[in-house]
C-alpha cells in the first residue's frame, strides 16, 4: 500500500497507484509499505470510475446488495459497513430493525425501511451477529476500533478490554465515531505498548 487518507487507500497494482474507497477501520488498520488485499468492485458513473474495497467477500456481497436498493448509493453502502458487520446487517434485516440503518449518515427512515424490505430473505444470520460490544455502542463501532488496534500491532487480548472501557466511558456523541474512540483507546494503551511491524 502506498498511502491512506481518511477512507481512501492508494494501492500499487502493476506499478500503477489505484485509489480505493474503504471503511475507516480498513484504512486505519492498513500499513504503508505492507501488502494489502481487498475484495473490490468498480462503480461506473458517467463522470467517474470508482473502486470500493472490502476486507472480506461477505462485506463485498452485502455492499452490492445495499447499493441495489433504491436510494442507497455507494457512499451510503460503505457507510453501513463502517458501522455494521455483514452479520449485523443480516440480523437487523431478520429482526426488521430499520433503526440500525438510520444510525448511518445519509440514510433516513424511509430508506432504512426500504433496505430491510429489499434485503429480506437475501442474507443469512449467524451466531456471531450479536457481539457483546454491540450493547455498548452502535453496532460495529466497537468491533471496528478493535480491528484497527489489532491491525496497528496490539493483541486482541490486550486491546479488547481497553475498547470496552473506552466505550463505557465515552459520551453518547462519541460512541458512534470510530475515529474518536480509536484516539481515546490509543491514549489508554500508550505508545510504549505499540510495536510497529514495518517501515513506510
Model description:
It is a single chain. The chain has about 200 residues and is of the alpha+beta class. It folds into 3 domains: about 5-55, Beta Barrel (OB fold (Dihydrolipoamide Acetyltransferase, E2P)); about 55-120, Orthogonal Bundle (DNA polymerase, domain 1), CATH 1.10.150; about 140-190. Helix content is about 45%, strand content about 15%. The protein contains 9 helices and 5 strands. Helix 7 runs antiparallel to helix 8 (about 155-170).
User: What share of the residues lie within helices?
Assistant: 40-55%
Q: What's the total helix number?
A: 9
Rounded to an integer in angstroms, the radius of gyration calculated over CA atoms is 17 Å
Q: In sequence order, what are the helices and strands, one letter per element?
A: EEEHEEHHHHHHHH
Shape annotation:
globular
Query: In total, how many beta strands?
Result: 5
Distance between the termini: 9 Å
Any idea how many domains?
3
Question: How large is the share of residues in beta strands?
Answer: 5-15%
CATH topology of the largest domain: DNA polymerase, domain 1
Low-pLDDT segments: 127-139, 192-200
The secondary structure category is alpha+beta
Q: Regarding CATH, which class of the largest domain? A: Mainly Alpha
CATH level 4 superfamily of the largest domain = 5' to 3' exonuclease, C-terminal subdomain
> Order of strands side by side in the largest beta sheet?
1-2-3-5-4
